[in-house]
Amino acid sequence: MEHSNGTLYHCSDVQFTEGDKLVPKLKETMESWDTYEQFVEQVFEQVRQNEFPDRPSRLESVFLTTHLKYFPLQEYCYEVDCTGNRFKTDQDLHSSASVFRQCRPDIKKWARKYWSGSENPETPEVLVKGEVTITKIVDKALFTS
Q: Is the pLDDT higher at 43 or at 71?
């Protein structure tokens, strides 16, 4: 379900209603992560600050997507409207850094590729530092089939 008109979605296990404003949650949820996952996030943030300071921080952003098929396990999905600083990249680059623990030396390489951005990523992730508003609840059956 890719939309060429630029539709953005937020998928979550939290139920929202139309008109709700989304807020960044990564910084507060990070405290419950294991040490390695926290380390990966710190490296990504350090690379962003030093080499891509114009990009919105993952710690201060709401995470969106342009394509629903990558979030079949999320309970709810929403169409959103947003304003502010946006950045599109490939979520797989961050996931690889978090999952492949034996490849610790590659974390900075993945971070640089992640922050370089991508117009057509395998697994699209859009970071938004700004206002994000739920505009429509999407029927889960539409994106799980």
A: 43
Per-residue pLDDT reduced to its tens digit, 70-125: 666 778 899 999 999 999 999 988 888 887 766 667 889 999 999 999 878 888 89
Query: Which string of DSSP letters, residue by residue, matches 39-105?
Result: HHHHHHHHHHHHH-TTSPPGGG-EEEBSBGGG-TT-SEEEEEEEEEEEEEEEHHHHHHHHH-GGGGG
The pLDDT, as a whole number, for residue 67 is 82
Decide if domain 8-144 falls under CATH 3.20.170.10: yes
**Who contacts 142 (Cβ-Cβ below 8 Å, separation ≥6)?**
1, 68
Beta-carbon-side half-sphere exposure of residue 101 (alpha carbons within 13 Å): 6
Most distant pair of Cα atoms in the chain: their distance: 43
CA angle 48, 57, 99 (to 5 degrees): 75
Give the H/E segment covering residue 129: strand 124-138
Q: How far apart are CA 119 and CA 86, in angstroms?
A: 12
CA separation, residue 77 to residues 17, 31, 88, 134 (Å)? 11, 25, 19, 10
